[in-house]
Design goal:
Elements (H helix, E strand, L loop, with lengths): L1 E14 L2 E6 L2 E7 L6 H13 L1 E4 L5 E4 L6 E6 L21 H16 L4 E4 L7 E15 L5
Helix pairs in contact: 1-2
Keywords: Cytoplasm, Hydrolase, RNA-binding, tRNA-binding
Organism: Levilactobacillus bambusae
EC number: 3.1.1.96, 3.1.1.-
Length: 149
């Protein structure tokens, strides 16, 4: 699984002028799934993201987690995180998980993240979505369960 995490002051996702999810302070997550992703990958990401300390404490040091600041998550599926640009000028998306598996893993990830007590809003899997955000920092962190760094 791959996730692009952005710390935001606010974010929302729309489909056809209908707001599906919106948050104030928290994380916007762009979530990509590949076919060999498992529950282990989900659990790793839930653990990392729910405990990630990237909000400033009173001394201005990144030392607080999402729960410490009453933050929320807006999770948006994004198969294009597995784009390959190796050949030509048109990306290939063959690395992205088949939709049935990817949808299951995306929902499992969101459910397990919510089970930690974090408020999770979502987009609509497979839809053409409009995502708006006000980045905070900016702070952007990449997670890839196949390249744990």
């Amino acid at each position: 699984m791959r996730i692009v995490l952005q710390r935001v002051k606010r974010a929302s996702v729309r489909v056809e002028d209908h707001v599906l999810g919106q948050i104030n302070r928290g994380f916007l997550l762009l979530v990509g799934v590949e076919d060999n992703d498992t529950d282990e990958d989900v659990d790793y990401l839930v653990s990392k993201i729910s405990r990630l300390r990237i909000f400033s404490d009173p001394n201005g040091k990144m030392n607080l987690a999402l729960g410490d600041v009453g933050g929320a998550v807006l999770s948006v599926s994004q198969f294009t995180l597995f784009a390959s640009t190796k050949k030509g000028n048109r990306p290939s998306f063959t690395g992205a998980g088949n939709p049935e598996h990817a949808k299951k893993m995306y929902h499992t990830f969101n459910d397990r993240l919510a089970a930690t007590g974090i408020t999770v809003q979502t987009g609509q899997f497979g839809a053409d979505m409009e995502v708006a955000l006000v980045n905070d920092g900016p702070v952007t962190i990449l997670f890839d369960t196949k390249k744990k760094e």
